[in-house]
Amino acid sequence: MAKIIKIKTAFSIAEVLVTMLVVSLIMVMVAPIFTKKNAVRSSVPPGEWTCTLDASGRHVASDGSVAADGSYCIFKPIPGVTDYSVYAIGGGGGGAAGSDSGFNLVSFGQSVTAEIPESGSYDYVMVGGGGGGASYNRIFPGDPRGRIACNGAHGIFKSGTLELTKGTQISIQGGYGGVGGERRGDGFSATGVVSCDSEVSREQDGGESLITTRTNDGEQNISADGGSAGDKSKYSGCATAELSASDRNSLISFTGFSSNFISNLGRGGSGSTCMVAAKPGTNGLVMIKSSLVSGGGGGSAGSVAYRTVEKPPFEVIVKVGQGGGGGTYAANDGYQGQPSAFGNYLIAAGGAGGHVNATHDPTHASGTNGEASPLGGIYSGSSGANNAQNDMDQNQGYVLVGSNMYGAGGGGGGYDSSNGFGKGGRGASGIVRVEWH
Fold this sequence. Notes:
Blueprint: H1 13-42, E1 47-53, E2 59-61, E3 73-75, E4 83-89, E5 99-100, E6 104-107, E7 111-115, E8 120-127, E9 138-139, E10 157-164, E11 169-173, E12 194-195, E13 209-215, E14 218-224, H2 245-255, H3 259-263, E15 285-290, E16 293-294, E17 304-310, E18 316-319, E19 340-342, E20 346-348, E21 415-416, E22 420-421, E23 431-436
Antiparallel strand pairs: 1-2, 1-23, 3-18, 4-17, 4-23, 5-16, 6-15, 7-11, 8-10, 8-15, 9-12, 11-13, 13-14, 18-19, 19-20, 21-22
């Protein structure tokens, strides 16, 4: 049997050395290629590209690449650049106009309940219900018309101011008018007097007017008494049925109601003769309203968004958000700013518009009397006594070159009793910026 001999093979030292020499020569040959590529990359200097809006609202790109109608910018990728740092700011929200809070609660006899919307001073007026008139209780011979009993008295007038906190529950009720008296004759008595006592008189006092406030600390009441009913045994020396002229004038000034309407509030009912029903009193009044006036809230700044974008394969459409308009009439919220976008890669939302009645709202600072709120734009003068005009208004909200107002929110308008409301300021337009290194 033949013997099998296994021979082991391997690279000799000479062969290994030759292989290493060949690899070294190849590396030397390709080195210029890598060096050239790196040289091309390093030849692209750091730079930046921006897109903004001009005074006409047209898009403006730093390299002039803009759509023909100015509706957007066009970002063109830079040869040799692989990564871009992109950030955007949305348009700022517009400020709200100033406003009167307009809280007004009134009752002419019914119960009315509400919640106090803002902490502050609230003025009120009250008149109790008028007392019912009386029907006279007898008739003397020789007086065919009989005697007329007394009228009911007017309700009590009261006015004042309450310091109320937000959330307080308040109930009001104007006092009801008292019922008038009614008596029927039962014929002549032996003395020649017609008695009217066969049916019980039903004249009533007027009801009280009432304000009730309820908080966690308890309940408080303010009342104005109703007028007393007429006296059935008297036809002279009666209580006054009408409010005084000064009280009526105060009511007219406070409520704005006509003098004829006011003259009947809480009036005592007319008295009558023995066989005639007397008139009832009229209902009283409670009216409470706010003495607050509020500056509009400043608009919020546009949001800021940042992202690293790898080399986009195509040109990118870029949109810049306009700032939101300010409130232009009383109690008008500011408008939302528009978003800014770098294609589908990055979107920065616009700022929220300011809210009305924002004086006591910690999230929307007030622009009282035309001053800019902390969230709003810089106040630099006014075309009206209480307008929250700011730098953005001078240029319709489009930020001028070199300004740092991009995305700023508009200031809120003021309000005062002499000049009324002020318009809210416009929010600033946004920006899109691209940088590479």
